[in-house]
Amino acid sequence: MSDLACLFEPRSVAVIGASDDPGKYGNRVMRSILEAGFKGPVYPINPNVAEVQGRKSYPSMRDLPELVELAFIVIPARAVVDAVRDCVASAVKGIVIISAGFGEIGDEGLLAEAEIARLCKEADIPLVGPNCMGVVCFSSHIIGTMTMDRIKGEPGDTSFISQSGTYGISTLNQGLTTGVGFSKFVSSGNEAVTKFSDYLEYFGDDPATRVILGYIESLKDGQRFASVAREVSKKKPVVVMKFGRTDAGTRAAASHTGALAGSHDVYSAAFRQCGVIEVMRTQDLLNVASAFRSQPLPGGRRVAVAGISGGFAVAAADYLAELGLELPLLDEELQQRMRNEVKVPPFAIVKNPIDLTAEVRPRFLLECVEMTLHDPGIDALIMGLWSWPLPPAEESLRTLERVQRESGKPLLLCYYASRRGAELIQSMTSLPVYGTPEEVSTVMGCLARYADYRRQTGTFPS
Q1: Within a 10 A sphere around the Cβ of 261, how many other Cβ atoms?
Q2: Domains delineated in the chain
Q3: Residue 289 pLDDT more than 80?
Q4: In three state form, how does the secondary structure of the chain look?
Q5: Calpha distance 180→173 (Å, rounded)
Q6: What is the rounded distance in angstroms from the CA atom of residue 59 to the CA atom of residue 63?
Q7: CA 223 to CA 290: how far, in whole Å?
Q8: Is the pLDDT confidence value at 399 over 90?
Q9: pTM score over 0.85
Q10: Closest CA to 410 of 361, 362, 372
């Protein structure tokens, strides 16, 4: 395939099916591109009107005054094949077909989809879709989707490949509101030409992408995916959710994108072998992304837990143990230093987990965390918070950020008193903050699994 940069960083765009009618998808796609502030020319293609959204409209791609790099097709399925022929004749570099009504509806749609694929493959044109939501690239101000909600965000370093359009866009928006900085998004749809593995390979080489997320229902090129994923995972984390895990989910996936989902056990085994991190919940997908974006990989599986609640400590210890992580007892000398130098209260437990119980003054917990993170017998730390006194919060968080940087080890925070409190603390720090012991332990388990893969392949970052 040609370089996929034309899909995310085009210099010019055409919208086939652009409209002034707000009830039509062509209106939404055209409007979202213009509102995002795309710097290049945007040409509406509509033979029935002279102007669309204040811009001159053209009857077809062949009538444009210049060559256009990326074409969005948002018209009824019966007219799409001819539109693709016009795009090929006009030497476009990339096509996004948002229109549905192809392989997902039966034999007639499959024939049309096959013809579209033939035309694009012969012309070596990457194709997103058909039956997709569109593409997003924040750095180039391309927001080419049919969603009614306006997508807004500053360029980040996470890229997302989704085989579902609306589910993928919803997850993207959820991540944007919770601080996950996205670089690019693609709704791959039926993948008639350009497939999940192609986007994965492109993002693997993309310097603007640090973490890759994926929503998978089925893979049409399993062997190529495995080959690509194995290499990409040696450079940057790939985190996926695989749906179609049950018989009911498999049937739903087949009707959704026209492809069979396959055995989930086989997929999971392949993910493990390729270093791909599989999660089971949407929130985990975003949670894990936030940790990979901001934290180093742990040097091993030895985790410490510190906080002011014995219940949190027990819960986190259980979840971590179930994930194969260790909670080693802290060295006796370190325990004595906490008692003699930090002067923790006599009722405090400092073995690991570190439980300061009713002592809510930040100094004690902060100093214990600093000592523990610098202990060579500990690879990572989870800090549980039930309350956080103000106004020292920002100063304490700055201290934690410094301690984490100096230690070079991952530090994850969990504020479990309220979800709103966790969001407030997250707005004040670069450290990832989670709302439950299950969430923070799951994230730590994913960091450890990926670190294991990098060690096994000799690619652990120095």
Answers
A1: 24
A2: 1-152 (3.40.50.720), 155-294 (3.40.50.261), 297-456 (3.40.50.261)
A3: yes
A4: CCCCHHHHCCCCEEEECCCCCCCCHHHHHHHHHHHCCCCCCEEEECCCCCEECCEECECCHHHCCCCCCEEEECCCHHHHHHHHHHHHHCCCCEEEECCCCCCCCCHHHHHHHHHHHHHHHHHCCCEECCCCCEEEECCCCEEEECCCCCCCCCCCCEEEEECCHHHHHHHHHHHHHCCCCEEEEEECCCCCCCCHHHHHHHHHHCCCCCEEEEEECCCCCHHHHHHHHHHHCCCCCEEEEECCCCHHHHHHHHHHHCCCCCCHHHHHHHHHHHCCEEECCHHHHHHHHHHHHHCCCCCCCEEEEEECCHHHHHHHHHHHHHCCCECCCCCHHHHHHHHHHHCCCCCCEECCCEECCCCCCHHHHHHHHHHHHCCCCCCEEEEEECCCCCCCHHHHHHHHHHHHHHHCCCEEEEECCCHHHHHHHHCCCCCCEECCHHHHHHHHHHHHHHHHHHHHCCCCCC
A5: 9
A6: 7
A7: 29
A8: yes
A9: yes
A10: 372
Banded pLDDT at 260 (limits 50, 70, 90): very low
Q: Which amino acid is residue 362, in one-letter code?
A: P
Q: Which amino acid, residue 307?
A: G
Asked if 120 and 88 touch (Cβ cutoff 8 Å), the reply is yes
Q: Give me the torsion for CA of 458, 162, 439, 429, rounded to 10°.
A: 80
Each residue's pLDDT tens digit, 106-132: 888 999 999 999 999 999 999 999 999
- The neighbouring-strand residues paired with 304 are 381
Class of residue 346 by CB neighbours under 10 A (exposed 0-12, middle 13-18, buried 19+): exposed
Contact 394, 400 (CB under 8 A): no
Burial of 76 per CB tally in 10 Å (0-12, 13-18, 19+) = exposed
Alpha-carbon distance of 97 to 102, in angstroms, equals 11
Residues forming beta bridges with residue 55, ordered by sequence position: 52
Residue linked to tokens 């819960």: 315
Tell me if 429 sits within 8 A of 401, measured CB to CB.
yes
